[in-house]
Write a structure and sequence with these properties.
Number of helices: 1
Distance between the termini: 5 Å
Radius of gyration: 23 Å
Oligomer: single chain
Order of helices and strands: EEEEEEEEHEEEEEEEEEEEEEEEEEE
Strand content: 35-45%
């Protein structure tokens, strides 16, 4: 079952709030629990679904930029933009919440999660479960460590939360255009709370990042009025990706991850696909198309870069008969491609704004920006 709100959302942020609560109770006082639950901490996980009233970004019309790089973090950018139902959906059956001690070793998780909708606030859902942290991982009934949320991915191993833990960082997902699945997401936050059975504790928010990139190709509806996209393909792409970034050591907050530590391309030869991926039917719009896909190495020596091919239809409905190539490179001040490629990186949004320069020639404005979101509007059950 899919719960969805009809309201238009204007945010790319997912905010996950976890609260240690008495089962199915939202009262503000402590209470007793049954004896067979005495060693357990019962947790309610709820997602706040609200509208971000900020205006949609107009960055698609700005000068081309490369993906953010270096030691800047995911906290240092503007997340405005129209949200899409698919890119924000979470499958509760593939939602895991783990707790790790300060040294990164596994401490416990949230079990038996179920979901219900708030009676008074129709834009709020609550996911309730049982938090079970072994008493050996507590100090005076207190837990201090990290909380990691894994969404839309297979149940992770209980290996340590470190960059040397291949069981965790090498967890992968498959990308099949004919059988799309929900986008893998993850988030981490430090927590410190009393784990005494029967009490409630509000824990910190966890901000999530996606494991895929988003590509949008849109015609300029002023210059290209009446024109439509006849066909569009991705010519080289990977059918597999890693769920997590390349580095997590000492990471206490998702937003503190640097851009350099984010990229984690799946490079085995068997994942490379050279059959063009047609995404003409990806959206109902005939002037804008979206594609979500795993990361791709476009910059290493000897690689064949990924490109897109676009065919256009004239205002009279006939094919123009021309194929245009869109590249993952920096574009110059004349909107022409340069020889400076960039990788297709997770959690980035590649926006191509296409317009006609002359017969059989187009101009392309490209913006590459972090693709982030605080709120969420759809839960899958």
């Amino acid at each position: 079952m899919i719960y969805a709100l009809k309201t238009t959302y204007k945010s790319f942020c997912l905010k996950v709030s976890l609260m240690a609560l008495a089962a199915l109770s939202l009262v503000a006082c402590s209470q007793d629990v049954d004896s067979d639950d005495a060693q357990k901490n019962i947790v309610s996980v709820y997602f706040t679904l609200s509208v971000n009233e900020a205006a949609a970004s107009v960055a698609a019309k700005s000068r081309a930029t490369a993906p953010p790089e270096g030691t800047d973090t995911w906290q240092s950018y503007d997340p405005k933009g129209e949200a899409d139902d698919y890119e924000n959906a979470i499958d509760v059956d593939k939602l895991n919440v783990y707790f790790y001690k300060v040294d990164g070793s596994y401490a416990g998780k949230v079990d038996d999660m179920t979901a219900y909708r708030d009676d008074t606030k129709k834009n709020v859902y609550h996911i309730v479960g049982k938090m079970n942290i072994d008493k050996d991982n507590l100090v005076n009934d207190q837990f201090t460590g990290r909380m990691v949320v894994y969404a839309n991915m297979d149940t992770p191993a209980t290996s340590p939360w470190t960059s040397g833990s291949t069981d965790v960082l090498d967890q992968s997902y498959s990308f099949s255009p004919s059988a799309p699945t929900y986008i893998p997401m993850w988030g981490v936050r430090t927590v410190s709370f009393a784990a005494t059975p029967g009490t409630q504790q509000q824990l910190n928010d966890v901000y999530m990042l996606r494991a895929v990139a988003k590509v949008t190709v849109q015609l300029d509806e002023t210059i290209m009025k009446g024109w439509t996209i006849e066909a569009i393909t991705m010519n080289r792409w990977n059918n597999k990706g890693y769920c997590l970034p390349s580095w997590v050591d000492g990471l206490n907050d998702t937003q503190a991850l640097s851009f350099n530590e984010s990229e984690h391309v799946y490079t085995d030869n068997d994942v490379l696909q050279t059959t063009p991926l047609d995404f003409t039917a990806s959206t109902a719009s005939t002037v804008s198309k979206n594609l979500y896909l795993p990361e791709y190495d476009n910059t290493s020596a000897g690689v064949t870069p990924a490109t897109m091919s676009v065919k256009l239809r004239k205002p009279d409905g006939t094919s123009e008969g021309q194929t245009y190539t869109l590249k993952f490179v920096k574009y110059d001040d004349k909107d022409a491609p340069t020889d400076a490629p960039y990788d297709i990186v997770r959690n980035h949004w590649y926006q191509y704004h296409v317009y006609k320069l002359s017969e059989h020639k187009i101009g392309v404005k490209v913006t590459v920006k972090p693709w982030y979101y605080v709120e969420h509007k759809q839960i899958v059950m």
